[in-house]
Design brief:
mainly alpha; two-stranded antiparallel ribbon; globular
Length: 323
């Protein structure tokens, strides 16, 4: 209940932003920040709770994005109907990649490289086949209506992104307290010990991959709806994978609020450095990278993880004083 109350409070605070501000700059900032949170949440399910580091989560992002676009352009489906199908397509790809990888015992750096290789293979395929638009990409026609999931104001996208991020928070909260989440964390900590007590690591990791892929595919589908364009470089490029994993790592892997805190902190940092030093080419990226290095060096458990450690230490100190 404590997690649910915190999630409800978070959703309420974000919901007030479109109601209190009609500024396009503010709404765009909140929308893109929520988008970054969604990607970090997706990676955190597999990488944070499952301990399976992926360098190729763009594989699921791109699959969801292309599925969303193709279902509307070729199958003439409504965008709202295409969204769950795009998530299901990404989840199916996740199941296939997970089955191939985990059945042959790939983990650690080997699994990370395999996911990166799959993303590159899909990028090359998308560059070659006609139904993805090849190197030109796909563009959705402009239909400014809520029924087509193309809102005239950024407020509509803020509401929709908030719904997806809230769903990600609820899923993460469930992982923290459910039996399946305990199985997943046991596999992450010691796979052999988990197997010895009756846990099936293959099944647990496969289900985690499917959930992570579905959430990442939702991010890809939303990218298409917001920007109305997708090409192989955007869909399967390494930038998306890096954005997803860095947000979760900086915020705190395997935590409920880590991906949200990390994505928001990085988003604010990127905007500040761009606005303050954008006139000096490359300086904003140098500062951004330097701050990232400092965070990783001095906050190895992430922002949320370190805050939790400090709170736990303070509680123990207070208990000792009372005793």
């Amino acid at each position: 209940m404590k997690d649910l109350r915190a999630i409800a409070l978070f959703a309420l605070v974000v919901m007030l932003v479109p109601a209190l501000s009609a500024s396009g700059v503010m709404l765009n900032f909140v929308m893109t920040a929520l988008y970054a949170c969604l990607l970090a949440q997706a990676w955190n399910i597999l990488g944070g709770f499952g301990g399976q580091f992926s360098f190729g989560h763009a594989l699921f992002f791109g699959t969801g994005a292309y599925a969303q676009a193709i279902l509307q352009l070729d199958a003439h489906l409504n965008a709202w109907l295409a969204l769950p199908l795009a998530c299901a397509t990404g989840a199916l790809v996740g199941a296939g990649v997970g089955a191939i990888s985990f059945r042959y015992g790939l983990k650690g750096s080997y699994f990370a490289l395999v996911t990166l290789a799959f993303a590159e293979v899909f990028r090359i395929v998308a560059l070659s086949v006609p139904f993805t638009g090849a190197g030109v990409g796909l563009m959705l026609p402009l239909q400014s209506s809520g029924g087509a999931m193309q809102f005239e104001s950024r407020a509509g996208f803020v509401w929709l992104m908030l719904a997806l991020v809230t769903a990600g928070l609820l899923l993460t909260a469930w992982l923290r307290h459910s039996r399946f989440g305990a199985y997943l964390q046991a596999v992450r900590d010691n796979e052999d010990a988990a197997r010895a007590v009756g846990v099936n690591p293959l099944r647990v990791k496969l289900l985690a991959t499917v959930m992570s892929a579905a959430l990442m595919s939702a991010g890809g589908a939303m990218y298409v709806q917001i920007f109305q364009y997708i090409d192989p470089g955007i869909a399967y490029g390494p930038h998306t994978s890096v954005e997803a994993l860095v947000g979760a790592i900086v915020g705190g892997m395997g935590t409920l609020w880590g991906p949200v805190v990390g994505a928001l902190a990085l988003h604010i940092l990127a905007d500040l450095t761009r606005n303050l030093f954008g006139q000096l080419p490359g300086i904003n990226m140098v500062i951004y990278g330097s701050v990232l290095i400092l965070i990783v060096m001095f906050l190895p458990r992430g922002i949320a993880g370190s805050a939790l450690s400090v709170r736990t230490l303070w509680s123990r100190t207070s208990e000792r004083r009372d005793a």
